[in-house]
Amino acid sequence: MTSHSSAEQEQPASAPSRGDDASVADDADSEIDDEELDNWLVPTYKPKFYSKRPMKKALTAPWGLLVSNADVAKLKTGFKSQSMDHKWDFLVEDPDKNGNTSIHIIRTWCREECWIIHLVPASDDHDGGSAKIESITWEGNKAIGRCDAEQAKKEAVILLRGWLRCEFATLPQYAPGVFYNPKAYTKLNTE
After folding, report:
1. Where do the record's region annotations for Disordered lie (predicted)?
2. Residue-level pLDDT at 4
3. Nearest CA-CA partner of 156 in 98, 99, 116, 107
4. What DSSP designation does 111 have?
5. CA 22 to chain CA centroid, nearest Å
6. Inter-axis angle of helices 69-77 and 149-164, to 10 degrees?
7. What's the rounded Cα separation, in Å, for the pair 105 and 70?
8. Measured between alpha carbons, how far is residue 114 from residues 11, 53, 95, 118, 122 in Å?
9. What does residue 108 show for φ and ψ, rounded to 5 degrees?
10. For residue 156, with 0-12 CB atoms within 10 Å meaning exposed, 13-18 middle and 19 or more buried, which class applies?
11. Residues 119, 133: Cα–Cα separation, whole Å
């Protein structure tokens, strides 16, 4: 049996970057334009791209969680998956005139928004953070059922800690079993 990890296999020195003459020539016949390519590469929320699958039953609850400067930087950086294996996108909306922004947590394979974290600048009397999560919006009509605000917050925190490496030092560590815990969901009436 031949190994796929044979030492004799030639490895490319580096992949061509976007805009490299070789990559542009290779893609000359591509039907994908730059705007569409940016939809896949840039961690910015683009409503026209993601509005195809809006939340069926958006629920919003206040949060008021003070966020450290380091965590704010991580949240505002976001993450755009490059592979279906990544499963989640963390897309950042452009801030409004007051500096408010939202981070959309989206399931990649179906482009469904699952949570939206609403981030606002902290007031002058804050203790150590430059922003706070003012509120959270989550899908209240999941196939598994409906969870309350506390469960939605825990699930968002688990994902933000795992993917963006946010610390949220004032919150407890949640066990992995908390995520999509069936006991935390109420079965919806399907009638």
Report:
1. 1-37
2. 39
3. 116
4. T
5. 32
6. 80
7. 19
8. 39, 10, 20, 13, 25
9. -65, -45
10. buried
11. 5
